[in-house]
What does this fold into?
Amino acid sequence: MRIAALLLLLLLLSTSAFCQGQYRRAVAKSGDGVQTLLQRYGLNSKPYVQQFKQLNRKNLTAKGGLVVGRKYLLPNRSTKRPTVAAKAKTSHGISTTPLLPSALFGPAYSPVPVRDRALRGAVYYLSPGHGGPDPGAIGTYGGTKLAEDEYAYDVTIRLARVLMEHGATVYMMVQDPNDGIRDEAILKMDHDEIGYPNQVIPLSQVYRLRKRIAEVNRLHARHKGAYQRLIALHVDSRSAGQNIDVFFYHHPGNASGLRLAKNIHKVFTARYKRAQPNRPYSGNVSQRGTLFEVRNSHAPAVFMELGNIRNQKDQRRFVVADNRQALANWIYEGLLADYTGR
It folds into this structure.
């Protein structure tokens, strides 16, 4: 009996050692927390955090922190999460596999069916403003804070889905691994967004944008010869009494960027005229060569401000999910007009 128990103990120990051998290891750096370490490897969603704490429970501090220089086991992915356009499976000639990971859209909005090929051959780099440690502009709505990065991201991920429905290749330059498309009015603030592909988003705005545009330009070279556009979506912060319409910036020396901005602007002008015939649309197209993304992107770019997050009228543009979807749909219409009219 004692021999059998000893053999069982040896088997369990050897199995544990074997299992640990199947995990990658990472060394904690100065300033690392569990989220920061996992974010570096694209593993910072809640299930991975829980698994990490279970795997490393004996090596964490009393408060669940990390020890600098100590090696930690990293959770294994249950499925490999693609970060670039994936080859799609087809059913009756229609693709049903999204070019971005299904998890990125959330369970209610995936998979993404491709309805037609209207944007086949087009490549889009979508860049929602801020993210990670920087929430961007902050507004107050009924005593609750609204963060620019959450609302810009939700409109952008909705736009990504619409573009993919029509056959486009889409890159989300900022990704939130667990938010998906959200239909709530108040989008909870978090800081777990990552930069494409699986990069920690730095606090420094200059460094953040430099990394983001470097990735855009690297991908631009990969898709050499294709129709490629960068769309940057932001939410402005002005005095609470200032109601503004969506407006557009382009690089002064880029004719393609100007045409892109004008095509989207035309759609917004027409849609506002139909939806609010008694209210003129005041959004405009102007040059802004000082904007880092517009100035340094190799792909023609448009930079959009979606409204004033501190203004009560503009806030309805953000807190109503159907309005966020309308913004995404109208931008798509402008992008389609630009692509087909090139």
